[in-house]
Amino acid sequence: MEGLSQLKDAEIPDLKSFSLTRPSDGTDIEELLSESDGIGVPSLESYSMEKLETISELVSSHDKLLSFHVSETKSAHETSLDETGQTEIERALAFDPNFLIHGVWAETEDLRALSEEDVSLVMCPRSNSLLSTGVPPIREALDEGVELWLGTDNVSVCSPIMFHELSFAWTMLRLYG
Fold first, then answer.
1. Measured distance CA(144)–CA(91) in Å, rounded
2. What is the pTM of this model?
3. Domains in the chain: how many in total?
4. Which of 121, 105, 104 is CA-nearest to residue 113?
5. Residue 169 forms part of a structural domain
6. What is the pLDDT of residues 147-169, one digit of tens each?
7. Residue 40, domain extent
8. What is the CATH number of the domain that holds 51?
9. Do 59 and 39 contact (CB within 8 A), yes or no?
10. To which H or E segment does residue 4 belong?
């Protein structure tokens, strides 16, 4: 909650943002939702399936945002397939998110599902490059009709200068198709 208060108190001209929180053990999810714009789940492995269902239901009942970080690393993508028979994107879509974050290792079927279910994908190519997680499939996502947003992943990784994100994404699109 302290970080949320600091973000609200920060006065950054022309920066439009929303704040998503992450429940920790013992945290009252309803209290978090009363102070934030929603919940950002850092990984499908962060919570039990029951906890994720509870989070999804509470977020929906409070008309807040729900997002998941998915398919950021090759190992997370492969582990999800090996252990569940589903991609992280397939699993996250079951919780009716507003948007997903990363999708670096998204498969064509994942991108089609995002498009069909009208779930946006926030790509963070600069962060993915800095963290060496891979190259997001920008061209393929656009070709499949996915609504793409650009993000920094986390302001502690990349400063929130969207012109830098846009320039980097454009460079990636030109280099990798």
1. 19
2. 0.88
3. 1
4. 121
5. yes
6. 999 998 877 778 878 899 999 99
7. 19-176
8. 3.20.20.140
9. yes
10. helix 2-9
